[in-house]
Amino acid sequence: MAEFLADLSVYWEFVRNPLGAGLCLLGALLCLVGTIGVLRFPDFYTRLHAASITDTSGAALVLIGMMLLAPHWLVISKLVAIFVFLFLTSPAASHAAANAAHTAGLQPMIGPVGDSPRDEGSLS
User: Fold this and answer.
1) What's the pTM value of the predicted model, to 2 decimals?
2) How many structural domains comprise the chain?
3) In contact, 70 and 79? CB cutoff 8 Å
4) pLDDT tens for residues 9-30?
């Protein structure tokens, strides 16, 4: 049993760095997709949705990857604190922004692009 645990520790050290780097890369790509969504979507609400979902998910993947790459438990505990803070504040901030826009009277675009009067004069 002791040999198995020693071998498991060696295998974990071998897998930990590529797995952490892969999660960091995947999180960065997810944040990039969210940025493209913010630039491409037509109205405030869809842009807010793209930014909030991909930002939270991308940051989570990057933080988990950084936890796997961390050399010491103190660094991991700080990353966990950042992770919890992001998961508590990011959805609340997105909801507050959407609620403020709705209260101010900003209406969501409904229907396919090109049906609203403001799209008729565009040169697309």
Assistant:
1) 0.78
2) 1
3) yes
4) 888 888 999 999 999 999 999 9
